[in-house]
Design goal:
The complex is a heterodimer. By secondary structure, chain A is mainly beta. Chain A folds into 3 domains: 3-63, Roll (SH3 type barrels), CATH 2.30.30; 67-126, OB fold (Dihydrolipoamide Acetyltransferase, E2P), CATH 2.40.50; 130-187, Nucleic acid-binding proteins (OB fold (Dihydrolipoamide Acetyltransferase, E2P), Beta Barrel), CATH 2.40.50.140. Chain A has 1 helix and 16 strands. Chain A has one helix spanning 97-100; strands at 3-5, 14-17, 20-30, 38-45, 51-57, 61-63, 67-77, 82-85, 92-95, 112-118, 121-126, 130-138, 152-156, 161-164, 173-177, 182-187. Chain A has a 5-stranded antiparallel beta sheet. Chain A has a 5-stranded antiparallel beta sheet with strand order 14-13-12-15-16, with no helix packed on it. In chain A, strands 2-3-4-5 form a 4-stranded antiparallel beta sheet, with no helix packed on it. In chain A, a hairpin with a 4-residue loop joins strand 15 (173-177) and strand 16. The longest helix of chain A has 4 residues, at 97-100. By secondary structure, chain B is of the alpha+beta class. Chain B has a domain at 14-144 and 287-327: Bira Bifunctional Protein, Domain 2 (BirA Bifunctional Protein, domain 2), CATH 3.30.930. Chain B is 34% helix and 21% strand. Chain B contains 9 helices and 12 strands. In chain B, strand 9 (228-229) and strand 10 form a beta hairpin. In chain B, helix 1 (14-33) packs across helix 9 and helix 7 (258-273) packs antiparallel against helix 8 (284-292). Classes of the chains: A mainly beta, B alpha+beta. The A-B interface holds A 7, 27-38, 40, 52-60, 62 and B 51, 53, 100-106, 180-184, 189, 192-193, 195-197, 199-201, 204, 222, 224, 238, 240, 247, 249-250, 275. Chain A: Its main location: cytoplasm. Chain A: One of its GO terms (molecular function) is translation elongation factor activity. Chain A: Residues 69-123 form the Translation elongation factor P/YeiP central domain. Chain A: It holds the Pfam family EFP. Chain A: Pathway: Protein biosynthesis; polypeptide chain elongation.
């Protein structure tokens, strides 16, 4: 079992904390003038995203987590799983609802995502920062309005609902920021 | 991490480096005015600190009588040998080296100002140190009258217990009450570990706000090289100086009893063996000097980088060191 000593702590290091994989966000070395040194770390639980603080005595060790990020292409989803493929090795794997979460609404076939694997199993799925998706349903809106002011809800081909300007019509392509869920622009094929 | 094509550049601005140079010139003037002699002692030593919490860099000397040499973690032992030889009050500004210490307030190689005053007790020396800090920061930071706070008062005020009489269970209860998220069970830790935990996490951030705090009379178990005053309970005549929550200096009313010093070295070495730390060769030349006779004196070591950091109004020592460790 691989372990890290506090001397190796740095932002980004993947470790096991309370049975869950976690990533060190920040490490502060503190030491009184004479005496015991400590590492005060902020650490993110990679399962639930929560950041907690923890203090380790210098020289303590912590178990390493087998966590890696890989780029994979989204293939399709069925009732239970979202299936991805490594575009270089053609290796496929399936992510469950816990890993995909709310990001399911941004996944379009062929889209390249970053999948965080823990012991080879998908932990989280990050869609690209922006995606281009087709509008499948929106009110016709006002003719001739090109100002972009106001807005209306539009349902996209993946099921996501975003606010778009009034001039956007059903069947058009729009570019959306997946981090904020905001419309960015109309797009061409 | 800095980009590879820019790491040749200094981390500190030239403006800060000039401020640092002026500060060091001011320190030399301070001691010249008071008749304290500047000295130099070797950075390489055949002996090393036995302190369980200090890690020396080891290197190898090739030559007659070759063998292991250690980079000093402080110039304390040879400076005491100079004093025992009759040098009087002395000071030194030098680089010291401590392995495993890196962070916002630590660089493994840093600049220490260390000085000794003959005939001073720790109270007289901490007041002189406060005067030096005020003098050095005069152009950049106005300080209020120094606050004197005993280690006991600090714990009573911020943790609600007497640190000298509280046992591990009482200290662990405060660690829990303060919600300090120690990775291990505090009940299984030594009392000194818990005291250090409470000091660094709860007390230090409150010290030295707008004025220096002089924290003094430490638990006898944390005496290091300080003499122990036989009161009830006994306390170590040791002090630390804080400004804006940052520890700037550590000083002692110096132990000058060779027998007691040897016993402390041996106790340190026994403690080092528990976590498997290498045994350090204790300084027999210091012990011989103490046996010859060390005049009554107090000594203090002050972190010059941290002082420069406060003078420059920056938040990390990396900003006042031309080439900190990752650019060294």
């Amino acid at each position: 079992m691989a372990t890290y000593s506090t001397n190796e702590f740095k932002a980004g290091l993947k470790v096991m904390l309370d049975g869950d994989p976690a990533a060190i966000v920040e490490n502060e070395f503190v030491k009184p003038g004479k005496g015991q040194a400590f590492s005060r770390v902020k650490i993110r639980n990679l399962k639930n995203g929560r950041v907690i603080e923890r203090t380790f005595k210098s020289g303590d060790t912590i178990e390493a987590a087998d966590v890696v990020d890989v780029e994979m292409q989204f293939l399709y989803s069925d009732d239970q799983f979202w299936h991805f493929m490594n575009p270089e090795s053609y290796e496929q794997l399936a992510a469950d609802k816990n890993a995909v979460g709310d990001n399911a609404k941004w996944l379009k076939e062929q889209g390249v995502c970053i999948i965080t694997l823990w012991n080879g199993v998908p932990l989280t799925v990050e869609p690209p920062n922006t995606v281009t998706l087709k509008v499948v349903e929106t009110d016709p809106g006002l003719k001739g309005d090109t100002s972009g002011g106001g807005g209306k809800p539009a349902t996209l081909e993946t099921g996501a609902v975003v606010r778009v300007p009034l001039f956007v019509q059903t069947g058009e392509l729009v570019k959306v920021n997946t981090r904020t869920g905001e419309y960015l622009a109309r797009a061409k094929e | 991490m800095p980009e590879p094509n820019t790491v040749w550049r200094p981390a500190a601005s030239l403006e800060v480096l000039k401020l640092r140079a002026r500060m060091i010139a001011r320190i030399r003037a301070f001691f010249a005015e008071r008749g304290v002699l500047e000295v130099e002692t070797p950075a390489l030593s055949a002996a090393a600190s036995t302190d369980v919490h200090l890690h020396s860099f080891a290197c190898r000397y090739t030559g007659p009588g070759d063998g292991a040499l250690y980079l000093h973690t402080s110039p304390e032992f040879p400076m005491k040998r100079l004093i025992a030889a009759g040098a009087g009050s002395i000071y030194q500004i030098c680089k010291v080296f401590r392995d495993r210490e890196a962070g916002r307030l630590h660089n493994p190689e840093f600049t220490l100002l260390e000085w000794y005053r003959i005939g001073f007790d720790h109270h007289a020396l901490m007041e002189e140190a406060a005067a030096l800090i005020a003098d050095t920061l005069a152009g950049s930071r106005a300080l209020g009258t120094p606050e004197k706070l005993s280690y006991r008062e600090a714990f009573e005020r911020h943790c609600g217990l007497d640190p000298h009489t509280a046992d591990s269970a009482a200290l662990a209860a405060v660690v829990r009450a303060k919600a300090i998220p120690l990775s291990a069970d505090p009940l299984r830790e030594e009392a000194d570990t818990l005291r250090d935990l409470l000091l660094t996490h709860t007390i230090e951030p409150q010290l030295g706000r707008g004025r220096v705090t002089l924290l003094y009379d430490y638990p006898a178990s944390q005496a290091a090289l300080a003499r122990i005053r036989p009161c009830d309970p006994p306390v170590a005549e040791r002090f630390e100086i804080y400004l804006e929550g940052i520890e700037l200096a550590n000083g002692f009313h110096e132990l000058n009893d060779a027998t007691e010093q040897r016993a402390r070295f041996l106790r340190d070495l026994a403690r080092r063996s528990i976590p498997g730390l290498p045994a350090m060769p204790m300084d027999e030349r210091l012990l011989a000097a103490l046996t010859h006779g060390l005049p009554e004196c107090s000594g203090v070591a002050l972190g010059v980088d941290r002082l420069a950091m406060l003078a420059a109004g920056v938040t990390s020592v990396q900003d006042v060191i031309a080439f900190p460790i990752e650019r060294a």
